[in-house]
C-alpha cells in the first residue's frame, strides 16, 4: 500500500513546537507521514520539528509556494534570480525536516495573473529556473513535485497537459509533477486522461475534496482517481490536504471563509477512506 500522509495546514501554516502534539496524534491515528508548508521565517524551527518527527517514526513531505517578487515565470531576470534563491531556501528547509518531496505550484507566483493566456517564453523562463533548482535539490536528495492548480489561483499551469509541458521543458531528473484531486476536479475533463498524461512524471498525490473538507464527503470522483492511480501502478504518497480557519492569516490568504469539516474528523475519517479506496482498487 502507498504511504498515507496528512498536511497540517488544517491547523496552522506556522512552523513551531506547537505542532508537535498534532504530529504526535497523527502518528497515533496511523499516518505514515505529515506534510508541512515551507514559509515560516524561523529556520531553527524546521530542524526541531524534523528531529521530532524522525524520533517518533513519521516521515515528512513539504509544500511550497512563491510570491510576486520571486516569480520563476517573470520576464525580469532579477525576479527570476530571486525565485531561484527562494526555492533554494525552501529546499534547505525541506532538508532540515528530513523530507524527500517538496511539492507545490512554485513554477509561478501564486494568485498573480497576467490577464492573458500563458506564453511560450513564460514556460521557458520557469523551466530554466526549475532546472537550476533541480540541480540544487539533487544535492539534498529531494524531488521537486510541481503542482497544477485551478484557474482562480494560477494561469501558467492548470492542467496535467500544461504541467507535463513545463516539466519536460525543465528536463531534470529531480523535477517531477504531482496531482491534486481538488484542482483536477475543477480543471480536468476526467481523471482517466489526466492521470494517464502525468503518469511518467508523477511523484506525489494530494487527496483533496471539492470543498477542501473530508475526502469522500463531497463530489470528487474518487473511484475514478484511485482506479487510474492503480492502473498506472502509482507508488508514492497519498496525502490529504484540507483547510480550515484555525489559522486566520493563512485562511484569509487562500480564500477560506468557513469551516468545511472538523480537523480531527478529516484526519480520522480521511485515513479510513484512503485505506478503503486503496484496498477496493488494488492500489
- Mean pLDDT score, rounded? 96
Q: In the CATH hierarchy, what is the architecture at level 2?
A: Alpha-Beta Barrel
Count of separate DSSP helical elements: 10
Termini separation comes to 6 Å
By CATH's scheme, which homologous superfamily applies? Divalent-metal-dependent TIM barrel enzymes
* Total count of strands: 8
The top level CATH class name? Alpha Beta
- Tell me the count of domains: 1
Name the beta content range. 5-15%
Shape: globular
Widest sheet, order of strands: 1-2-3-4-5-6-7-8
Strand-and-helix sequence, N→C? Answer: EHEHEHEHEHEHHEHEHH
Please summarize the sheet with the most strands.
8 strands, parallel, barrel
Write down the CATH topology.
Answer: TIM Barrel
Helix content: 40-55%
Structure, explained:
- The protein contains ten helices and eight strands.
- The chain has 283 residues and is an alpha/beta fold.
- The protein has a single domain (4-281), classed as TIM Barrel.
- The longest helix has 21 residues, at 120-140.
Jot down its keywords.
single chain; about 280 residues; TIM Barrel; eight-stranded parallel beta barrel; 8 strands; globular; Sugar_Epim/Isomerase; isomerase activity; Sugar phosphate isomerase/epimerase; isomerase; Xyl_isomerase-like_sf
Amino acid at each position: 500500500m502507498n504511504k498515507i500522509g496528512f498536511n497540517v495546514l488544517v491547523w496552522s501554516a506556522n512552523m513551531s513546537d506547537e505542532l508537535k502534539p498534532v504530529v504526535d496524534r497523527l502518528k497515533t491515528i496511523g499516518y505514515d507521514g505529515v506534510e508541512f508548508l515551507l514559509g515560516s521565517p524561523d529556520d531553527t524551527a524546521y530542524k526541531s520539528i524534523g528531529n521530532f518527527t524522525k524520533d517518533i517514526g513519521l516521515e515528512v513531505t513539504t509544500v511550497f509556494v512563491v510570491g510576486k517578487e520571486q516569480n520563476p515565470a517573470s520576464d525580469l531576470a532579477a525576479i527570476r534570480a530571486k525565485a531561484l534563491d527562494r526555492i533554494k531556501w525552501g529546499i534547505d528547509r525541506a532538508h532540515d525536516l528530513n523530507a524527500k518531496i517538496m511539492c507545490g505550484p512554485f513554477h509561478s507566483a501564486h494568485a498573480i495573473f497576467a490577464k492573458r493566456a500563458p506564453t511560450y517564453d513564460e514556460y521557458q523562463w520557469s523551466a530554466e529556473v526549475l532546472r537550476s533548482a533541480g540541480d540544487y535539490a539533487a544535492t539534498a536528495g529531494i524531488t521537486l513535485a510541481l503542482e497544477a492548480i485551478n484557474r482562480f489561483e494560477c494561469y501558467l499551469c492548470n492542467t496535467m497537459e500544461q504541467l507535463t509541458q513545463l516539466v519536460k521543458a525543465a528536463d531534470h531528473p529531480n523535477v517531477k509533477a504531482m496531482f491534486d484531486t481538488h484542482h483536477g476536479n475543477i480543471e480536468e475533463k476526467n481523471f482517466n486522461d489526466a492521470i494517464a498524461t502525468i503518469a511518467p512524471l508523477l511523484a506525489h498525490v494530494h487527496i483533496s475534496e471539492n470543498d477542501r473538507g473530508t475526502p469522500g464527503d463531497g463530489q470528487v470522483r474518487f473511484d475514478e482517481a484511485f482506479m487510474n492511480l492503480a492502473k498506472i501502478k502509482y507508488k508514492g504518497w497519498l496525502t490529504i490536504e484540507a483547510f480550515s480557519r484555525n489559522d486566520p492569516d493563512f485562511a484569509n490568504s487562500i480564500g477560506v471563509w468557513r469551516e468545511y469539516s472538523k480537523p480531527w474528523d478529516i484526519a480520522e475519517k480521511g485515513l479510513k477512506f484512503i485505506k478503503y479506496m486503496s484496498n477496493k482498487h488494488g492500489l
